[in-house]
Amino acid sequence: MEFTGTIIRVSGIVIDVAFPRDHTPSIYNELHIQVPAEDHQEEHTISVEVAQLLGDGIVRCIALEHLHGIRRGLDVVDTGGPIKVPVGEATLGRVFDVLGRTIDGQAPLKETEKLPIHRAAPTFIEQRIEAVIQETGIKVIDLMCPYLKGSKIGLFGGAGVGKTILVTELIRNIAIEHQGVSVFTGIGERTREGNELWLDMKRFNVLDKAVLVFGQMGEMPGARLRVGLTGLTMAEYFRDVYKKDVLFFVDNIFRLVQAGSEVSALLGRMPSAVGYQPTLASEIGSFQERITNTMNGAITSIQAIYVPADDITDPAPAATFAHLDASTVLSRKLVELGLYPAIDPLESSSQGLDPHVVGEKHYYVAQSVQKILQRYKELQDIIAILGLDELSDDDKKLVNRAKRIQKFLTQPLFSAEFASGIAGKYVSREQTVSDFEKIISGGCDDLPEQAFYMVGKLEEVYQKAEKLRAEVA
């Protein structure tokens, strides 16, 4: 049964509604405001969500949509439950907003099951804990910070270092190489970025293997705060009912924190460190705990995390760290050197890089690459001051090898073909490990350094080296 209340106060995007005292809506309930027709607009309904109970049947709500035509005295209907969004195969290839409505301009969605976005995380007894590698086809990830199925991976980086390009590449590789399902959630995305992602996915023919959910930058803070849960609910359905392994992308988790901070300030809560909301840890926790392996399938989550002013100690990225199984750190220095994808192999880490998970050979090769790059990093100050000639013969050899490794960690990506003009490459994990094993053993020391740049497999390095030598000759 639906109960009706009345708007008694409007303050920005915060609305107070009075209901009969014995029919007060619960926290998280979706309420519908009936806005009558006026000169410049038709009759329409606006959704808001209950955020606080003020007592005596009065509830404080946060707007999920723009409040055109809102005023005191309008009727508000309690839907009796949280926001419900469509789930299942009908959602594949479509673009949704926070309320589960399609925003891609195509035919309306057929009747399909709907589930509430606020749900409990799977209990410990429902979860399955096992370490299985999720191959991505990107050399630097598969070698240095391999992703585990059902894990949470943070994609750290400031503005303009290539987070969205990497996310697009992973969606493409999982859909085409592994026939997986992806759910992409854009929190605080620019409209242009969302449009480009949709066009890219159409170009790679992976749109029918993905669901896109957007809460764009210009939308209400309430919508941006809840859009992550909308995408997660759709991903959970593929895991629990279709028993699939799902890739769940969040771009950008920092915007989720930012939206929470805005909502918290509007509700009059006292801010915490650096002006963030006092509920930061619990908000992030309730979202992250639902992303997990169960007996039915796995949700592997890749979360782009904008780092404000490149400060990794900021409370927003720091709160997210506690939940991550792997972190992929994008470096501005590598961007400046033209090394793409700009993943820092020394800063990035993963619980998957364990001899019991990836095997002794992979672990040994990754550790050797790390040692060579770390020593090269230590020697860079000496090289800058005294020059390369002052190094010992062993160090000179190591520096040359490190430069080749650094170049070979680059790779042409399918999603960056428009910018680089080089066809994208997918390289299997097995191939990557054996190629790097040859490089660290010194088997490629005589090949020109430039031959290692922007290639896939090692055999392409040999072909490029032949070309370069022929040009010199």
Keywords:
473 residues, alpha/beta, eight-stranded mixed β-sheet, six-stranded antiparallel beta barrel, 18 strands, elongated
Shape: elongated
Average pLDDT number = 91
Number of DSSP helical runs: 14
Roughly how much helix do the residues carry, as a percent range?
25-40%
Largest sheet: 8 strands, mixed
Total strands: 18
Structural class: alpha/beta
Uncertain residue ranges: none
Work out the strand percent. Answer: 15-25%
- Roughly how many Å is the radius of gyration? 25 Å
Strand order of the largest sheet: 8-14-13-15-16-12-17-18
Distance between the termini: 85 Å
Short summary:
This protein is an alpha/beta fold. 36% of the residues lie in helices and 20% in strands. It has helices at residues 139-144, 163-178, 191-203, 221-240, 253-266, 280-288, 315-321, 332-336, 355-358, 360-386, 393-408, 417-420, 429-440, 458-472; strands spanning 3-11, 14-18, 30-35, 44-55, 58-63, 75-78, 84-86, 95-96, 114-116, 133-134, 147-148, 152-157, 181-189, 210-216, 246-251, 299-306, 326-329, 349-350.
Protein architecture, described:
The chain has 473 residues and is an alpha/beta fold. Helix content is 36%, strand content 20%. Helix 2 runs parallel beside helix 3 (191-203) and helix 4 crosses helix 5. The longest helix has 27 residues, at 360-386.
What's the topology here?
Elements: E1 3-11, E2 14-18, E3 30-35, E4 44-55, E5 58-63, E6 75-78, E7 84-86, E8 95-96, E9 114-116, E10 133-134, H1 139-144, E11 147-148, E12 152-157, H2 163-178, E13 181-189, H3 191-203, E14 210-216, H4 221-240, E15 246-251, H5 253-266, H6 280-288, E16 299-306, H7 315-321, E17 326-329, H8 332-336, E18 349-350, H9 355-358, H10 360-386, H11 393-408, H12 417-420, H13 429-440, H14 458-472
Parallel strand pairs: 8-14, 12-16, 12-17, 13-14, 13-15, 15-16
Antiparallel strand pairs: 1-2, 1-6, 2-5, 3-4, 3-6, 4-5, 7-9, 10-11, 17-18
